[in-house]
Structure formats: structure tokens, C-alpha cells
Amino acid sequence: MRFLTLLFAFVISASGHAKGLEISFATEDGVTVYGEVYKVADTPMTAPVILLFHQGGGDTRGEYSPLVSRLLDEGYNLLAIDQRRGGDRFGGVNRTLAGVGDTEYTYCDVYPDLEGALQFAREYGFSGKTAVWGSSYSAALVFKLGVDHPEKIDAVLAFSAASGEPMNGCEPEPYSEQITQPVLALRPIRELEVPYVPGQMEIFQEHGHQTYVADPGVHGSSMLNETRVGSSTEAAWTVVLEFLQANLTVRE
């Protein structure tokens, strides 16, 4: 397989709660992307898989390690990657960014990383229902991913989807009308004060997508992280898990 490369070394997530198999793959434009596969023990490759994409300034371990164990306990296999646009916001290292040197990429330029992850998941052997999960700028990109690959993606989760000038050319709103998969779009309540956010949420609702406002909450997928929110996140978790259960086949 030209596309798929495995690094056969187990790593422990920053939370200490889950193990992942470190992987890498090359995108269509030649960038090496690093990440982890987390597989639920004793489940077939036909079990559902969720692809996790982080927010700007971050890395996959820093953002998602606190969430991985909960998702594995619910029966979901996971693929989480470091995108070429990110950093050390959560105290981790973005391995993909470290490998691109001084090359600067826009948020829209990251799209091949997401397409590469989707292709990697198939080449790795995952054949069950698939959800794509984005945070901030990647929450915008998963709308386009769903539109471009309807045969491979069964559900889309968008946490604090970015829009406006930073996303020029890949804003989520136009794709919101075209996407055919079930979509869950989430925001923390304080982001309703951002000028474009109320209108964006109305657009999502007009197109039949499920929306949720977390109160309290923080930006992106971290609205599920109790430590970062500073209070219980169970209400948000309930919405997310019910959406996943309704749209993916969960093991019994």
C-alpha cells in the first residue's frame, strides 16, 4: 500500500487513560501527517470509527486525549491526527507541523490532511460506519469533507465551526446546504456573542441540521472536557452520544 505507513510503537495519551497505535500517512500533496489509531478491544473492523480533527493552534493528543477513553467505552474506534496547521496550545507537540518546516498553510490548505485521514481509515481496514468530528477551523472543513465524500461518511460533528475571512474559500455555510449526512453543530453559549455565530446557527437549522448550545462551555471540542469547562459537561456529552448512537451502529 503506497498510501499507508505504520509506526509500530504504542503511545500513551496525555490523560494516561488510553493507548493508541502511532501512525503516519502521506497526503496527496506530499505532507506527512502523524496521528494515532485507537481500537476498541475485541471488536471487528466493521465497528464504527470516528475521525477526530483538532482546532487551530493545537494538536490531537492535547485536545482529544481527555475524551478518548469515553468514546472508546462507548464502542467507537478512533483515528486522530495532527494537522499541518496547529501548535502547542494544549501543551502538546504537533508532529505534522514540526515536519513542514517554515512552510505556512492557511486553514483551507489543511483540507488534504482530512481527506488523507479518511482514505487512511479505509486502507487501515476500518469498514464500518464513519463519523468525522471537527473543532473550530476543522469543524468548518468537515462540512466540505461530508459533501465531497457522501459514500464514506455517515455523520458529521462540528464544534465551534469557524467562518469569515480566515476560512475564505472553505466556509461551512455553503456546504451546509449541500451536505446530506446528519450534522450536529455545537457552540458554547458565550460564542453566541460573536457577530457571525447566531446567523450561522440559523443557517444550520434552516438546512435541517441539529444544533446545540453548551452552557457553560468553551471553544471547540474542549466543551466536553470538564477540566477546561470548570464544571460538569454531562449535558453536552449526552447530546453528542445520542447523536452518535442514532447515526452509527454501536456494538452491543
List the helices and strands and how they pair.
Elements lengths: L3 E9 L6 E8 L5 E7 L10 E5 L6 H14 L3 E6 L12 H4 L12 H14 L5 E6 L1 H12 L6 E5 L12 H7 L4 E6 L8 H10 L3 E5 L11 H4 L4 H14 L5
Parallel strand pairs: 4-5, 4-6, 6-7, 7-8, 8-9
Antiparallel strand pairs: 1-2, 2-3, 3-5
Helix pairs in contact: 4-5
Give a verbal description of the structure.
The chain is of the alpha/beta class and 252 residues long. Helix 5 links the parallel strand 7 and strand 8. It is globular.
Average pLDDT metric? 92
End-to-end CA span? 33 Å
CATH topology: Rossmann fold
As laid out across the biggest beta sheet, the strand order is 1-2-3-5-4-6-7-8-9
Architecture (CATH level 2) name: 3-Layer(aba) Sandwich
Classify the helix fraction into a percent range: 25-40%
Overall radius of gyration: 17 Å
Strand percentage, roughly? 15-25%
